[in-house]
Structure formats: C-alpha cells, structure tokens
Amino acid sequence: MVTKTPARSVDCQDCVIQATCTLNRIRHEERIRIEPKVRERIFHRGDVLLEEGQIAKSARFVKLGTVFGYRRGLDGWSRPIGVAIRGSALGIVGTFDMPSQATCIAQTTVRVCEVPVIDLREASTCGSSLAEEVARSITQIFAALTTWSEAMRLPGTINQLAYILVLLADANKASSVQLPSHSALAELLGTRRETISRALRALESEGGISRHDRKRCEVHRYKLLTRLHAGKQ
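Below the sequence we write its predicted structure tokens.
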C-alpha cells in the first residue's frame, strides 16, 4: 500500500543529503539537466517504496526516516534483510533496466527525493559521470547490507539491538532516532516483541539509551560500543 502524497519540487543545493546524494556527485552540466525532474515525496509507515522483482519507475533517495528492505526466501516468505540508510538510492538499478532485488517498506514517516528512471537512463550515456555514480550507489547499497548483517552475528538480542541502534543513529547522522515499531525490530532480529521491550529496558538501565517516549530515543553511542567491546551478554 502507498499513501498518496503530493510531490513538490526541490532545490538540490539546500538538500540535507547533499553530501551523500548520488546526483550531487555528478558533473555540473549533467546535474542541471536532471535537477528540474527531482521531486520530494513523503511516505508513511507501511508504505511500499520499492517492489522486489520489478523495474522501478523512479529512483528514490532517502532523506529522512527508516526504511526496511525485505527479500523473498526460498520458502516464499519475505523477511527483513537490512535498513536503508540516509542517502540510499532505492530503485537506482532501474537505470540499467534491472529489477529491484528487495522490497522496501517505510517503518516511520519517510521523506525522499524522487527522479524518473527514464530521465536517469537517458543521462547515463557512455562516458557520463552519472553512470559511474549509479554504479557507486549500487556498491554502497551492498556495503550497507553487509553492515546490517554484522548485527546478526552478535550473541544475544541486547547486543544485536545495541548494534542496530548505533547504525540507525549513524545512518541518520543524529543521536536522537525514531524507533521502528517493536514488531518491526523483532522481525528484523528474528525474535519476539516482548524480547525487544526487555532489551530496550536493559539498554536504558545501563545508560546506553535515553527514552524520550515509545517512538524516540537518544542513542549514547560510546556507551553502546563500550558494551559491545566488553562482550557483555
């Protein structure tokens, strides 16, 4: 399901993800041809931003919020495989007429910049800097997935959750993060909602996080990494 929200034009020079955006890294003469096509759109929790197996019609660059990637297994079930970080270029492989390898679903309110893939495809001619940056974005997506998989190698849900909270804070470049639902976190870690609740309380009692409310917390990166380094269970 996708909540219909009006798209609006944006000024790329004032964008919050300018430093990490694929479009900002291409040559000026190429960028000015694409910028008029860029639109900002807001998605809400549960909205599907990308469908596995389909060629995306638009590339969506994550500016704000949390997006989980889901991959269909051999048994037909879709399971979360990681989280799209700020600046992620969802659907960018459509530039090369390739299908998306994961379904991406908003876990919080998400703000993206959207560009029609057909415009990117036309601009990605031989020798263009855009083609090079699209390839770089694909590599970064793969690197981000491997980083998230590191959390699953840690012993115990508390450590796994601590690692994920640090990654969320780093991805959003802020110590205050909006938490996905307990159900979503439980699905990501392959556990139960009650276990996630207990793990969050444990991290709070240790001073690793400060809860503002049920949906937002302050991540104390140093304390969480100290916990992980010490090998606590």
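The longest helix spans residues 129-151.
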